[in-house]
Amino acid sequence: MILTWHGHSVVSITTIQGINLIIDPFITHNPVNSLTLTDIDVDYILITHGHNDHVGDAVAISKQCNAPIIAMVELADYLETQGVTTIPMNLGGKLSGDFGTIKFTPALHSSTYTVDNTLIPCGLAAGFIIDDGSTKVYHAGDTALFSDLQLIGPVDIAFLPIGDTYTMGIDDAIKAADLIQAGTVIPIHYNTFDEIKQNPYHFINLLPQNNGFVPDKDRSFNESCIYL
Ligand code: NI
Ligand code: MN
């Protein structure tokens, strides 16, 4: 599996089967994004929840790549009205496909999509456990700390938000990492905006284990790649 973090919550994954996934593709208005929209070539798009910094360019990418969007049913229903194909899911559901499996897990967060100052309700927020048969990855989406995170792991890699204000901050993310029992934890959802400014090295240094991943010094809130 190849995993790349592209800033904010954007993660791309190439599974061991050679299937390309992108999670929360917030590209165009993302100040820390490392991707060029027209270069994106994926088989599936996954969205954790309806907030605009997570739906991002999903509709354009879906049309460009002829790739379905995998999302919670209420968000999927809305996106279908925008002319894309979706695979609707709900919490607890596991989807099997040519990528392995994707399981939708609870996230403690809200979920609306804003169009022209109108809020569209998008159901509940989610996280994902992606298992391609070789590597198990957890992407938390946006969430607060909650004790049921102990039911998620163990996983090889966990992407956890550390930005605070809209999600858990560093102290709670350290507790979350302990509950999840991930081999490697990769901090996300920080330094995109002033409200979520954090030092990722502070987070990594607070982890009890040798984490096996350090954010690149020169690109600390941009692209970081991990090969497994
Ligand atoms: Ni959000
Ligand atoms: Mn967010």
Q: Structural class of the secondary elements? A: alpha/beta
The run of helices and strands is EEEEHHEHEEEEEEEEHEHE
Q: Share of helix among residues?
A: 10-25%
Strand order of the largest sheet: 6-5-4-3-2-1-15
**Kindly state the mean pLDDT as a whole number?**
93
The N- to C-terminal Cα distance equals 5 Å
Number of alpha- plus pi-helical segments: 5
Shape annotation: globular
| Radius of gyration, taken over Cα atoms and rounded to an integer in Å | 16 Å
Q: Describe the largest sheet.
A: 7 strands, mixed
Question: Would you kindly provide a written description of the structure presented here, covering whatever features stand out?
Answer:
This protein is α/β, with parallel strands linked by helices and 228 residues long. The protein is built from five helices and 15 strands. It has helices spanning 52-55, 58-65, 73-80, 170-180, 200-206, and strands at residues 2-5, 11-14, 20-23, 44-46, 69-72, 86-89, 94-97, 100-106, 112-115, 118-121, 126-131, 136-139, 155-161, 182-188, 224-227. Strands 6-5-4-3-2-1-15 form a seven-stranded mixed sheet, with helices on one face. It has a six-stranded mixed sheet with strand order 7-8-11-12-13-14. It starts with a strand and ends with a strand. The model is unreliable at 218-223 (pLDDT under 50). The structure holds nickel (II) ion (NI) and manganese (II) ion. Residues 49, 51, 54, 109, 142, 166 line the site of nickel (II) ion.
Features:
228 residues; alpha/beta; 6-stranded mixed beta sheet; binds nickel (II) ion
Write the layout of secondary structure elements.
Elements: E1 2-5, E2 11-14, E3 20-23, E4 44-46, H1 52-55, H2 58-65, E5 69-72, H3 73-80, E6 86-89, E7 94-97, E8 100-106, E9 112-115, E10 118-121, E11 126-131, E12 136-139, E13 155-161, H4 170-180, E14 182-188, H5 200-206, E15 224-227
Parallel strand pairs: 3-4, 4-5, 5-6, 12-13, 13-14
Antiparallel strand pairs: 1-2, 1-15, 2-3, 7-8, 8-11, 9-10, 11-12
The chain binds nickel (II) ion and manganese (II) ion (MN).
